[in-house]
Amino acid sequence: MQTLTINGKDVQVDVPDEMPLLWVIRDFVGLTGTKFGCGVAQCGACSIMIDGVVVRSCSTPISLAKGKQITTVESESEKNLVFLRQAWRLNNVPQCGYCQSGQLISAAALLAEKETPTDEDIDNAMSGNICRCGTYVRIKQAIKDAAELKKQQ
């Protein structure tokens, strides 16, 4: 039995050390917001944060997350996600919505690093996340709006 801290809560799972975090989070913990996209860490749909750093959960074994803070899109304590969710709704960002959990995680990490990100900052931070529907313009605007919402709080 192994203990992981996911979204501020300790959870116990009985899985092999090499199992990808994606499947632990979805199938053993029951948090299904993190999505399987490509399975080779290229699309960003499976993005989560470990100790504030964005990682691809489809290719990150559970052994690398032991003793660390794991944040998924379901987190209620990650303040940047709260502002981003609000901005996402205001800008009608998702179409199919499949990539959105990874987009939100990458955007939350960006806002933790840069209070007022530039277009270039946003492009660089979000470049590893693919949106099949092409909502990149709305994503960029929502990140800017979330930064403003954060300043107002």
Textual characterization of the structure:
- By secondary structure, this protein is α+β, with helices and mostly antiparallel strands.
- The protein has two domains: about 1-70, Beta-grasp domain (Ubiquitin-like (UB roll)), CATH 3.10.20.30; about 80-150, [2Fe-2S]-binding domain (DNA polymerase, domain 1), CATH 1.10.150.
- Helices cover about 40% and strands about 15% of the residues.
- The protein has five helices and five strands, in the order ββαβββαααα.
- It has helices at about 20-30, 80-90, 100-115, 120-125, 135-150, and strands spanning about 1-5, 10-15, 45-50, 55, 70.
- The chain has a five-stranded mixed sheet, with helices on both faces.
- It starts with a strand and ends with a helix.
- The mean pLDDT is about 95.
